[in-house]
Amino acid sequence: QVQLVESGGGLVQPGGSLRLSCVASGFTSSRPMRWYRQAPGKERELVAYISNTGGTTNYADSVKGRFTISRDNAKNTVYLQMNSLEAEDTGVYYCASLPFWGQGTQVIVSS
Q1: By the 8 A CB rule, do 59 and 70 touch?
Q2: CA 22, 96, 18, 65 torsion: positive or negative?
Q3: DSSP state, 52?
Q4: DSSP, res 27
Q5: Which residues contact 76 (CB under 8 A, 6 or more apart)?
Q6: Are 18 and 85 in contact (CB under 8 A)?
Q7: Cβ 23 vs Cβ 4: under 8 Å
Q8: CB 107 within 8 A of CB 42
Q9: How is residue 75 annotated by DSSP?
Q10: Where would a tag sit more exposed on the chain, N or C end, judged by fewer CB atoms within 10 A?
């Protein structure tokens, strides 16, 4: 069956970096992928998108220039490189290949 498994979250100081990974299984071909996040008390929001080939990417305005989404189709893995992290980036990060979702990985940005 389809499975999306995220990893790489953790506690990081403001200005630091993290790289999230999402390993996909159960798909017959590469699919567009998305990273979402949900901050405490807020709705889930789309952070980044990547097409099935990786040729197209899009970002939320709040993360442009700081986050980079990429993929390695040979490894069935999508990444989210997060630099210059801010307290507002705190939340649970989910990868998705709609309508399928991972379980999420927690990111906490705090000094």
Answers
A1: no
A2: positive
A3: T
A4: -
A5: 23, 24, 25, 27
A6: yes
A7: yes
A8: no
A9: G
A10: N
